[in-house]
Specification:
about 120 residues; mainly alpha; two-stranded antiparallel ribbon; 2 helices; 2 strands; about 75% helix; about 10% strand; rod-shaped
């Protein structure tokens, strides 16, 4: 199991990860470090534990927002599918009505031809 050195808020941490996950772990640590710097710039030094907690809460809030938007997008997709289904049904009904109208026109035309 590889060990990866990462930096968050100027402190080095060594973390174990699965083989091949090293770069992903570094990317995640960079994200946490960015959020920690945001917290530092807005509230100042609050201690490492509180700083990391606040950074984690910011990341969790972003994650929650994305999950909510995805769920709403899924609802819109379901609504869109229903609209497409309704449009297809309406199109089918219109085609049947036109077919019946064409049959009636042909009968009328045949009746006029025999008259």
């Amino acid at each position: 199991m590889p060990l990866v050195n990462v930096m968050v808020n100027g402190r080095a941490y060594t973390i174990a990860c699965d083989e091949g996950e090293e770069e992903h772990l570094r990317d995640l640590a960079r994200m946490v470090d960015e959020k920690a710097r945001e917290v530092l710039s807005s509230v100042g030094q609050v201690g490492d534990s509180r700083l990391i907690l606040m950074a984690a809460l910011l990341i969790a809030d972003e994650h929650h927002g994305m999950v909510t938007r995805l769920a709403e997008g899924g609802q819109k997709t379901a609504e869109t599918e229903q609209l497409h289904l309704k449009a297809a049904q309406t199109e089918e009904q219109a085609a049947e009505a036109m077919e019946h109208a064409a049959e009636r026109v042909e009968k009328i035309a045949a009746g006029l031809a025999h008259a």
